[in-house]
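Private note to self, pasted from the team thread so I don't lose it. Backbone tokens:
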């Protein structure tokens, strides 16, 4: 009887862990990157610079096969002296991509909940994922995919702004 109770206490946490990772890895179940702001200051930040930088742009999942549905993930670095804001949450994303080849973009009814603005302080960085709910990226064929990621935000004065960065990834 003691062995049965010990086994039960081990199996339950393992099952919960497996279920959690499975749900988090499914595409389209929310934006797991939008609110993962780093508490560390970006060492490359320059307070005299007025730029927003996109880096480490890649598909998620990282390894794609023909037919795969995917998101785009990028790290946004606020190298400006002011905070910026953008909308990011379960339904909304400030990150979109345009593809030159081998990817189809499909639109369908997404969720309609509004997301609160996210503030990114100077010298900080955060990972964001896109597209918004209701938009699906799907790889059509194997090969190198040339694309451009565009991040939409508002500066401290509330003016709309964006930055576009080209990137390349491979579909096997």
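Design output:
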């Amino acid at each position: 009887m003691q062995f049965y109770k010990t086994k039960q206490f081990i199996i339950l946490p393992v099952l919960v862990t497996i279920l959690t990772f499975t749900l988090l890895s499914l595409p389209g179940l929310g934006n797991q990157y939008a609110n993962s702001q780093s508490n560390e200051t970006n060492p490359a930040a320059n307070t005299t610079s007025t730029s927003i930088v996109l880096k480490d742009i890649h598909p998620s999942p990282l390894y794609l096969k023909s037919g795969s549905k995917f998101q785009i993930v990028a790290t946004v670095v606020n190298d400006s002296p002011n905070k910026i804001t953008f909308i990011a949450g379960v339904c909304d994303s400030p990150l979109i991509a345009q593809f030159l080849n081998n990817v189809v973009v499909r639109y369908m009814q997404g969720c309609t909940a509004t997301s609160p603005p996210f503030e990114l302080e100077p010298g900080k960085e955060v990972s964001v994922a896109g597209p918004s709910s209701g938009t699906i990226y799907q790889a059509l064929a194997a090969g190198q995919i040339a694309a451009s990621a565009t991040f939409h935000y508002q500066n401290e004065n509330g003016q709309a702004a964006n930055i576009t960065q080209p990137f390349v990834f491979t579909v096997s």
